[in-house]
């Protein structure tokens, strides 16, 4: 195995839902809501009934998503930018 170009660590590779190979958390690109929709559309009826969950890479923890909100006054996100609460 060859070390990652970005962080110089040798990582286990795994398949993500978009079909690409994840090599390093530092190299993962940001998913758009349009790409997320394409993943959700391909889910089975059983998967769609499961709780929506996010995985914190840095903390190695799973969290349920409680709500989708839209930015009103935070200057970090664009106005009306949707985000998940967990």
Structure report:
By secondary structure, the chain is α+β, with helices and mostly antiparallel strands. It has 2 domains: 48 residues, no CATH class; 36 residues, no CATH class. It is 15% helix and 23% strand. The protein contains 2 helices and 6 strands. It has a two-stranded antiparallel ribbon with strand order 1-2. A hairpin with a 5-residue loop joins strand 1 and strand 2. It starts with 13 loop residues before the first strand and ends with a strand.
What is the structure about, briefly put?
With 86 residues, the protein is an alpha+beta fold. It has helices at residues 33-41, 45-48; strands at residues 14-15, 21-22, 53-56, 61-64, 67-70, 82-85.
Q: Helix proportion of residues, in percent? A: 10-25%
- Radius of gyration (Å): 16 Å
Tell me the overall shape. globular
- The secondary-structure class comes to alpha+beta
Mean pLDDT comes to 81
| Count of runs of 4 or more consecutive helical residues | 2
**Total number of β-strand segments?**
6
The largest sheet, given as strand count, sense and whether it forms a barrel, is: 2 strands, antiparallel
Low-confidence stretches: 15-23
Structural domain tally: 2
Strand order of the largest sheet: 1-2
Strand content: 15-25%
Helix and strand element order: EEHHEEEE
N-end to C-end Cα span: 36 Å
């Amino acid at each position: 195995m060859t070390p990652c170009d970005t962080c110089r660590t040798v990582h286990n590779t795994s398949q993500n839902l978009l079909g690409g190979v994840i090599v390093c958390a530092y190299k993962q690109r940001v998913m758009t809501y349009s790409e997320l929709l394409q993943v959700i559309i391909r889910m089975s009826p059983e998967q769609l009934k499961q709780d929506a969950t996010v995985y914190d890479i840095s903390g190695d923890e799973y969290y349920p998503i409680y709500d989708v909100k839209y930015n009103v006054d935070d200057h970090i996100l664009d106005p009306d930018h949707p985000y998940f609460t967990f």
